[in-house]
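If your schedule permits, I should be very grateful for your opinion on a structural question. What I wish to show you is a protein chain and, alongside it, a tokenised description of its three-dimensional fold. Would you kindly read the sequence against the tokens and tell me how you understand this chain to fold? Here, with my thanks, is the record as I have it:

===
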Amino acid sequence: MATKSTKPSWPVSAVDYGRSLKRFGANLLVCDVEASKNFAEQVLNASVVYWNEDFAVFRAGEIHWMLHADHIYADNPLLGFVESVEGRGQGVELHLYELDLDEAEVAARAGGHVALAGSLDKPHGVRECYLLDPEDYCWVASRPLDE
């Protein structure tokens, strides 16, 4: 693992963190952890549990997800595949429910990010907004429509 971080290590051991994970998780490979961290904070209103140049953990409500920098995967065959795909997040939607999507859209646009589809009421009973992060992962902020 080719780390480059100069920040203090996360005080939680990898073993303890791994054992704490339940149900579903996402780990996104990114070129720039800090840029993706800023998007998560400013647009998705996520809390940063921990971050450095190599790795980050976020929380939004009860949902947790991670980022790993490409260089951490230097010896993993997945990296070659990811690097060969233009727009890494193509075909993946990451849904965050119960997020103020109108605020998220405004924050995304103000930060120069792409809103694929602005906040709209959808026929399947939710209001949604499709936003691209710096690595082209598509985050879908949504809320149920009032009855």
